[in-house]
Amino acid sequence: MDVFDVIRTRRSIRRFTDKPVEDEKLHTILEAVRHSPSWANFQCCRFVVVRDPSVKEKISELSYVENFFSPLGYKANPAKKGIAEAPVVIVACADPKQSGTLWDQPYYMTDVGIASQTLMLAARALGLGTVFVGVFEEEKIRSLLKVPSNIRIVGLFPLGYPAEEKTGASPRKPLSESVFYESWE
Ligand SMILES: Cc1cc2nc3c(=O)[nH]c(=O)nc-3n(C[C@H](O)[C@H](O)[C@H](O)COP(=O)(O)O)c2cc1C
Questions:
Q1: Distance of CA 92 to the CA centre of its chain
Q2: Ligand 1 atom showing the smallest separation from residue 14 Cα
Q3: Is any atom of ligand 1 closer than 6 Å to the C-beta of 122?
Q4: What is the CA(113)–ligand 1 centre distance, in A?
Q5: Using a 6 Å cutoff on CB, does residue 29 contact ligand 1?
Q6: pLDDT tens for residues 13-38?
Q7: pLDDT tens-place string over residues 101-126
Q8: Whose CA is nearest to atom 9 of ligand 1?
Q9: Rg of the Cα trace of the chain?
Q10: What does the pLDDT average to over 115-140?
């Protein structure tokens, strides 16, 4: 698959088989993530790799924020089960002080976002699946994983071999709705 095929065919995967993720593949993904660009190359991102089933189970239980999903029609985070069943959960964190803020825009979120896309594309290229999970109880996961108070936890990435087949691209707005040439109008 070339890079465009990987981009086009990546989908959020929320169900996983129990086939373990090979150490080499995990390392390849983390190594790809390491190459992601960041604000002034300060490299604010940090990752906690969790394989312990009991810890993954607890993270899964914490993948909610009170009343967040009910207006969307979900009782729980759609990724909840997948977090517990994936052989690996990567917890993406950042040290905001090691990134920039300009015009009220905190670029550590951008740094983690870029690293996250690298992670998801690298996983896809290796035949693995994952999903960006952004809804969780940050403080409870912080104490579970002993993440220092100056570090933000930005995303959870259950990682494993897909147990669901997703064919076709996700629905997206046409370019005509999102791209303007020369000026906004
Ligand atoms: C910042 C961010 C947070 C997300 N949080 C969640 C989440 O908490 N639970 C979940 O099941 N999916 C989550 N998603 C996945 C999106 O729902 C998914 O990317 C979107 O529906 C498009 O589907 P696709 O990834 O298959 O193209 C998140 C995605 C992003 C980018």
A1: 7
A2: 11
A3: no
A4: 12
A5: no
A6: 999 999 999 999 999 999 999 999 99
A7: 999 999 999 999 999 999 999 999 99
A8: 133
A9: 17
A10: 98
Tell the residue nearest (CA) to atom 29 of ligand 1. 132
Percent of residues, the chain, with pLDDT higher than 70:
100
User: Could you tell me the pLDDT band of residue 167, with boundaries at 50, 70 and 90?
Assistant: confident
Superfamily of domain 3-165: NADH Oxidase (3.40.109.10)
Whole-angstrom distance, CA of residue 55 vs CA of residue 19: 18
**Sequence-ordered list of residues with C-beta below 8 angstroms from that of 49, at least 6 positions apart, any chain:** 26, 30, 88, 89, 90, 91
Question: Ligand 1: distance of its center to the CA of 31 in Å?
Answer: 23
Residue indicated by tokens 């207006």: 71
Three-state secondary structure readout of 4-18 = HHHHHHCCECCCECC
Give me the residue spans of the domains in the chain.
3-165
Nearest CA to ligand 1 atom 15: 132
Amino acid at 74: Y
